[in-house]
Structure formats: structure tokens, C-alpha cells
């Protein structure tokens, strides 16, 4: 089996034209295990076959302790109806996953619908390193949403699952007939967990996010998926650690939840497709 750095190098040899320098926006050339532009800005492949496109180290609140349970929950089938809906709306081609985390959504999606090229990026290096174990047919990198290291009009589809958006950059890197698929949590998303962590109540709405999508994109399709997922026993503890919900929760409440784990959880999301 090829080493990760060699797999990454083979991918770049075929697809380096999809990338551009985030510093000067010039095109790249490929040389062995790195990309470089005419202004001598160079980005090396890591041993894990990834590229770090930022010019400084970034510390995020998303770490391995959250990404691992998140990945296990995704692979447990918690989001299977969501993934199947996304697969139905994707036109196979060149796919970009924005804020891919540890890569489980893209890996699961590619099992349903293979794409010519699949790239995932995130600001959290720990997530990207974990992603290299999820899918061997994807390329992963650390990059800034507001300054994407990709060429103009090179993607057929952008996935935007539970992550921020930058529509100006989305439009730049999308092909003229390309689409953005955005997944937005609705008011009952993870309702049981929210009510357990915050019994006093905590208002939750993403209508402003949906309104922004409607303003920025021409909406082709939209649907709302609401269902209850029966959590496998081996994943019930993972639910408590998979999202930022637990960051500000009372430790005593979390202790009680660990003693009596949730068996079901509500998934309530809006899926939008626009161009």
C-alpha cells in the first residue's frame, strides 16, 4: 500500500491545476512533494499527504477529543438520511467539502456516489489529520474559508454541512452550472441533548443563516428532514462529546447524563441547494 504522502503526491500530479496560491493567487506548478508558484511561495505535503495552506498556526476549539466521537456518530448511521439526500442532489464531478472536520461526511457520501475528485478542508489541523484515515480517495488540506486555495470555477459541487459560509469565494470556485449544498440545523436538532444540558432553556434558531443563503444564492431545491435516531449502545457516550453543546454545560449535569445516557436523539435539518 502506498504511503499517505505518496498518495497525496499522485493526486497533486493529476490535479495541481485546481489549486492556486493563497498568498498571491498565482497558479501552482508541481514538483515532487510540494506546490510552488512563480513568486516562490511553496506548500509542502505533510507525511500524512495533506497540505497546510495557512501562513500561521491556528488554534481552534475543535480538537481530537471532539472529532473522534463525532466521526463515530456519523458512521453509526445518525445522519444516513441526510447523506442519502445529499447524494441524490449531487452531480458527480469535482466536489469540495467546506469545514470537513475529520472527514466522515465526505467519506460516507463517496460510498454512495463516487466523484471524479473529492477534496475536504478545515481550519482544524487535528481534524484533517484524522480525515486521512477516513477515505483514501479524497485529498485533505488545512485552509481558510475566506481565502480558498483553489482555482476559479473548478468545482461542480460545494458541500457546506454544519459549517460557516463565504459565498463570494463559493461563487468564485464553482463552475458556472455548479451548486452549493448547505445543511443547516433546525430548531429541534439534538433537542434531547439541548434540553438535558440546558434545562433552563436556550433559544435556538438558524433562520438568519437560511435567509442569508436565500439572499446570496439562487435556490434550486430545499427540504427539511426530521427524524429520531436510536443511538447504538456503544455510541451513547459519544453523543455527549461530539458537539460544542457540552463546552459550557454544567459538569454536574454532564455527570448525571453519563449515568443515564440518552437512547434516542432528534435530527432536524434544512438542506438547501443553490447556485
Provide mean pLDDT, rounded. 93
Number of strands: 11
Which H/E pattern describes the elements?
HEEEEHHEHEHEEHEHHEHHE
Shape: globular
**Helix fraction bin:** 25-40%
Q: Termini separation (Å)?
A: 39 Å
Biggest sheet, spatial arrangement of strands: 4-7-6-5-8-9-11-10
Beta-strand fraction estimate: 25-35%
Overall radius of gyration? 19 Å
Number of helices: 10
Low-confidence stretches: none
Biggest β-sheet description: 8 strands, mixed
Give the helix/strand class: alpha/beta
Task: Report what the structure shows.
With 275 residues, this protein is α/β, with parallel strands linked by helices. The chain is 32% helix and 25% strand. It contains 10 helices and 11 strands. It has helices at residues 4-15, 64-75, 80-89, 104-112, 125-131, 167-173, 191-197, 207-216, 236-241, 251-259, and strands spanning 28-31, 34-37, 42-44, 51-52, 94-98, 117-122, 139-142, 155-161, 174-185, 219-230, 264-274. The strands form 2 sheets. An 8-stranded mixed sheet has the order 4-7-6-5-8-9-11-10, with helices on both faces. The chain has a 3-stranded antiparallel sheet with strand order 1-2-3, with helices on one face. Helix 3 crosses helix 4 (104-112). It starts with a helix and ends with a strand.
Task: Provide the descriptors you would attach to this structure in a database record.
10 helices; alpha/beta; 8-stranded mixed β-sheet; 275 residues; 25% strand; single chain; 3-stranded antiparallel β-sheet
Amino acid at each position: 500500500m502506498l504511503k499517505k504522502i505518496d498518495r497525496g503526491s499522485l493526486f497533486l500530479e493529476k490535479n495541481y491545476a485546481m489549486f492556486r496560491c493563497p498568498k498571491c493567487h498565482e497558479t501552482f506548478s508541481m514538483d515532487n512533494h510540494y506546490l510552488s508558484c512563480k513568486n516562490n511561495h511553496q506548500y509542502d505535503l505533510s507525511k500524512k499527504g495533506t497540505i497546510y495552506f495557512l501562513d500561521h498556526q491556528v488554534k481552534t476549539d475543535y480538537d481530537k477529543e471532539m472529532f473522534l466521537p463525532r466521526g463515530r456518530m456519523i458512521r453509526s448511521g445518525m445522519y444516513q438520511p441526510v447523506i442519502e439526500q445529499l447524494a441524490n442532489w449531487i452531480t458527480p464531478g469535482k466536489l469540495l467539502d467546506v469545514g470537513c472536520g475529520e472527514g466522515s461526511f465526505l467519506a460516507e457520501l463517496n460510498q454512495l456516489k463516487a466523484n471524479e475528485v473529492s477534496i475536504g478542508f478545515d481550519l482544524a489541523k487535528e481534524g484533517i489529520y484524522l480525515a486521512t484515515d477516513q477515505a483514501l480517495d479524497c485529498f485533505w488540506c488545512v485552509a481558510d474559508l475566506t481565502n480558498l486555495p483553489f482555482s476559479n470555477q473548478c468545482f461542480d459541487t460545494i458541500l457546506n454541512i454544519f459549517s460557516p459560509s463565504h459565498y463570494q469565494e463559493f461563487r468564485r470556485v464553482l463552475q458556472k452550472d455548479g451548486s452549493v449544498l448547505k445543511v443547516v440545523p433546525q430548531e429541534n436538532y439534538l433537542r434531547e441533548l439541548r434540553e438535558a444540558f440546558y434545562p433552563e432553556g436556550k433559544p435556538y434558531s438558524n433562520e438568519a443563516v437560511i435567509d442569508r443563503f436565500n439572499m446570496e444564492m439562487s435556490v434550486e431545491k430545499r427540504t427539511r428532514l426530521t427524524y429520531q435516531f436510536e443511538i447504538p449502545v456503544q455510541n451513547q457516550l459519544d453523543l455527549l462529546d461530539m458537539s460544542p453543546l457540552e463546552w459550557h454545560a454544567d459538569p454536574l449535569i454532564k455527570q448525571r447524563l453519563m449515568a443515564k445516557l440518552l437512547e434516542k436523539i432528534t435530527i432536524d435539518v434544512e438542506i438547501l441547494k443553490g447556485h
